[in-house]
Amino acid sequence: MITIEMPLVYQIGIAIAFIAIIIAFSAILREKDDIHKLIIIDLIEITGLVVVALIATDLAEALILPGLVVGVAEIMAVSELWLAKEKLQQKHSAKKFDIEVMKTAPPIIGLLLAAYGIFLTGFSGGLIAALGLMIFFLGKNMGEHFAKIENAAGYAWALWVIAFFIFMLFPSQWFLAIMLAAVGIMLKVMAKMSLVGTMRGGE
Amino acid sequence: MFEQILIRMPFGDIVHYLSGYTVVLFAFAAMFVILAIISLPEKPIDIVFGTDGYYTKDVPVDLMKFQRFMAIACGIATIGAITTGDIFNFTLFAAFIGVLNIGIVAAVKNKQVLNAAFSYGLVVMMATVPLFAGAAIIAATCGTLSIWELAVAAEATAGISVPIVAKLLLLVGVLGEGMAPFYIGKAEITRAPGAPYILMIHVSSLLLFLRVVEILLTV
């Protein structure tokens, strides 16, 4: 198990990744502006994820997802901090752009992404469907669909619980349970992520 | 260090454990979580220089609630970092402690404090690169992230299984995540309102350092 022979590709890849990391770190040394520093540091995090991705196994996926989440959490916290520091926090709701394409394109793109996400099911399906809904809500700039999304999240929980009961009580019906759990987690991820789209500008 | 294991909880190949060393750290962290739950922040007193005048700074309830929540969460994350038997979980807890420390500091709406918190936030974000890179290199070269398995392998091969570069990256990452006390000194935040909760930052980074030393000596 220990000390598996790593192929040459890994060594070349990790050398390139480290060069990218060094370039990114030298950029942060030269930068003086705060917001540019923040952007460059996000770039640095992406290069760090490249190192993780180079493992190229299932383990890498299991490491990348939390790494990505940690990165997103940190950049959200620090950018919120920057807004507070520069006294730029929004007091009013976001200004609405009156552009024709913002009304027509989001439903089509959103529908396509949501349909593809439902086809995929599971965690990645939820992410893709959520992306579709986020684009829809960001383009529409509306807030009244909260209740429906929360409804969907409630049904998702119910599906999960039902799936777990089926796993426990009728293990022979595992395929049904997996499908229920996959649809449940898709709805859950979709609901949680699309809230990001509707939260814009709202208090 | 593995000789004096007190509690051992295996979950597959991830073995959570408490040794004679980490049980002390655990007790320390748990004590500070309880202190953060029960203690109330005092009102700091500023004396007007050259006169007899003084004034007290009030701690707003919402600030207190937020800082207390962050401090308790930070303490629980520290307990997690101490008890975990998986290097990846450890890196996640370290990153989590970093984010929570930013939260504790940034609750104080003061220009200098916010400046220091922002610089600390940048350092925390940078530190996640060596942290996750170290974990990834260990996973790539050893095929496992379980400290237990790595320790067994290290004993079998006289301590050469984990590459030294991965150990160094892990250490650098934890150094970055645990830098908070430095920025606290920079902003003199120990005199800011809500200061008792600031102690949790010191405790968490101290315990994080002590734990990473144990991990690096074990694997």
Automatic annotation (TrEMBL), chain A:
UniProt-listed Pfam families: EhaG
Transmembrane segments: 12-29, 38-57, 63-83, 104-137, 157-190
Keyword Cytoplasm among UniProt keywords: no
Keywords, alphabetical: Membrane, Transmembrane, Transmembrane helix
UniProt name for this protein: EhaG family protein
The species this protein was found in: Methanorbis furvi
UniProtKB/TrEMBL annotation, chain B:
Transmembrane portions of the chain: 20-40, 90-108, 120-148, 160-185, 197-217
Pfam short name (any one): NADHdeh_related
InterPro entries (UniProt xref): NiFe-hyd_3_EhaH_prd (IPR017059)
Keywords: Membrane, Transmembrane, Transmembrane helix
Transmembrane helix is among the record's keywords: yes
Name of the molecule in the record: Uncharacterized protein
Provenance organism: Methanorbis furvi
